[in-house]
Amino acid sequence: MDFGICVQDLLNTKYLRSITKVVAGESGLFKKVSWVHILEIRDIVKECVNGGEMVLTTGIGFTSKEVAVNFLKELIDQKVSALCIEMPLYYHEMDQEMIDLANQYDFPLIEITQISRFLDITKDLNTMLINNNAKLYHDADHYDNKLSDIRGTIADGIRYTAEYLDLEVAYLPIKGKQYGASPGLKSFIQSKLSALENILKDDETYCRGNIAIKHLKIFEKSWGYLVFNSTKRELSQFDILILNRLSNKIKNDLLEELTKKEEMLYKSNGWLKEWLEGSLSEASIYEKLREFGLRANMKGLLVCCTTLCCANISDCQSDEGGDEGAADDRKSFDDFLFHTTIIVRRAFEDEGFSILGYMEGNIISYIIMNSGAEENLYERLGKAIGHLREWKNQFMDYKDSVFSIGKKVDRAVEVVKSYETAVETLKGIDGQCGRTVIYDRLYANRLMEKLQSNVIEEFISDHLRTLLNPENLELLQTLRVYFECHCSKQKTAEKLFIVRQTLYFRLQKIEDILGKDYDEGEKRFALEFALHAYFYEMEKAQMKKAGAVNKMQKDIG
Fold it and tell me: Which of 170, 244, 247, 384 is a Cys-bridge partner for 214, taking CB atoms 3.0 to 4.6 Å apart?
């Protein structure tokens, strides 16, 4: 099988055979060539090559030995395959330092012994490379067809590819079963993993010599690594082409498998409504969980509810029938559910949770089952939701979604309490896009949400009095910090970045408004609650305003 054109192949053509002489780096003549390029501008090598080129130069810019050596170093750093220098006109003798450098890196250094028409050489050689690339893509299409005919598992595709290319092929998922990896290869990948995670981006491939690694991502989330390794030869352009084809096949297979799993879950999740409503016994809940392969030894359960700021699904919930538009809407709705749940499931599983999703009306509810440590439960929940906000897909931008996490419960039959508190809390933050609220961490705000707004406003006004006037807002903030610092004047002054004398002056003005006993007993408690209520209502109003502006911008867009 043709694995691409190398430096030696080009030197053997009629265009170069009689006018070239290899003076160094003969061990690198097998390197593959992607393009033949004329390059004279020594100061911008990095901007002019992508790697894999055979470079032709007259040497007109080599004004000194140092300039020529640095030019060669830059080409080697940029993974260029070879350098050909026209000797008769400008650069008459190859410097020994260049020869030694080329030999050190197995970099072919070639003399062009006659004055030549570079334009004609590059035209003919690049035409040959283009035709060869066309053949490579034709062969890759043939590989695709054969791979499709197999219709087997991921392991079958990896086995076929390894035989087809005569090299080692391995799939190393982040979680789950590994395929085709020898102990030595797994050890090598693990040792390089931290560096690879920084090097590899979504559409990039790590390729060095006889090994290539492709980072597999689904919905912007790392799913694993596909590795090609050869003990017989350096990997070629065709190998990398097949690596990309196989990685796409694996990603599509994984996505299809995940989608089928979610479809099965959604077709049989009517029981989740009964669980959320508290209609199932403990035994029946655990029986259902076992059917879905979920463990019963949970360390707490919560319900997370969300509404959709960026996707209107109400129109997608029409009944299926003869109307083609309704069928399309239904398919979009199903796709939305499957893909959203796949993303959400992965985000929470990475933080030690198992989830089951249920949708009713415009609210999606996720039953979150904790199997990790209890002491950092809410920190891990925050991380999972943070991961969601970073992801985007064709259905939803989670950055603007509202998440409400209900009361933590210890028994499966108590999930109804978590569900009710999650829904209730969600209603209280409706329209405040991008916010996450945890019921167990609302503290005094749980009371705030149950009080009528006029009652809160009256309580705030009665206790804070003229501190609420615009000219006294500095005093209001000072009182808030003073209470937060447990009435320590030193800590308050430090936190406000003011001198003690300024603080004493402000506290005296506060005392004139509120009375001498403002920092004592029940009056202090009432003032602290009023302060908390004031700033809580201010923050809520700002969030609603920001949500309204965000919605208006999206509507305009």
Answer: 247
pTM for the complete prediction? 0.56
Q: Angle, to 10 degrees, between the axis of helix 473-484 and the axis of helix 489-496? A: 130
Single out the residue of 302, 388, 297, 393 nearest to residue 346, CA to CA: 388
pLDDT along the chain (557 residues), means of 10: 75 89 90 87 76 88 85 90 89 86 92 87 88 80 80 82 89 82 76 67 72 82 86 82 88 82 73 91 89 75 78 41 57 64 82 86 87 85 88 68 90 93 82 80 69 79 91 93 93 94 94 91 89 83 64 55
- DSSP bridge partners of 437: 404
Q: Cβ neighbours of residue 164 under 8 Å, at least 6 residues apart?
A: 143, 146, 242
**Beta strand spans in 378-532 (E):** 402-405, 436-438
Structural domains of the chain, with CATH: 7-127 (3.40.1390.20), 152-255 (3.30.450.40), 268-441 (3.30.70), 449-556 (1.10.10.2840)
DSSP result, 117-177: -HHHHHHHHHHHHHHHHHHHHHHHHHHHHHHHHH---HHHHHHHHHHHHTSEEEEEESSS-
- The CA distance from 492 to 490, in Å, is 5
| Residue 384 identity | A
